[in-house]
Task: structure prediction
Amino acid sequence: MDDWSILPGRLIVVSGPSGSGKSTLVRLALERPEVRARLSVSATTRAMRPGEHEGREYYFLSRESFETQRDLGHFLESAEVHGNFYGTPAGPVRSALAEGQCVMLEIDVQGALLVREKVPSAVLIFVQVPSLEELEARLRARKTDSEATIARRLTNARWELDQAGLYDHQLMNRELDQAVDDLVSHLIRHGCGG
Ligand code: ADP
Ligand code: 5GP
Result:
């Protein structure tokens, strides 16, 4: 069995419902000079959105090549999220952890729970929203998703919110600056400071 927990680096998993603000929080926390961590780039089968670049937001794969890589054991975790496949490439994460670095994963709740099984030393942070109404408002304001997609994301959010108790930390994203400060504090407390 792979023993990820003996690697000296720290794995930090940030998840929560789509639209809760995960990517915004992670991006802003990584810009803080006191934080020393890198973000893992996931693979996905979803279509590239305008403004996205191969290898920056994601590695965009066909379903066939995703399944091949998954079956070869190339992902630390993978899950079907809102009708597409997503996975964390294991190799780069393992190398960074072996070098003692902090690695952040911004992944869905199913993936986070899989990471918990495989890497018991990982720190799981759940991004909370003030209400489902606020979540819906943020998904609409983002203007990246169709009505059908928003409806599906809100349905999934109910199950995701029920899993929050399994996480190490709850991070309320009400006021953005405060939430970034809270995330930075967690990172520093878990050894991801400079
Ligand atoms: P996720 O990565 O969890 O899907 P995003 O980071 O894309 O969520 O955030 C969803 C939308 O909500 C974005 O338009 C973002 O700018 C906005 N947002 C994030 N945090 C807040 C906040 N604290 N207050 C209001 N809007 C926010
Ligand atoms: P989006 O398509 O909006 O970028 O992301 C949709 C969802 O997939 C988000 O909840 C995001 O956190 C999740 N996600 C992104 N990468 C991964 C991954 O590697 N694994 C898992 N399990 N979920 C991911």
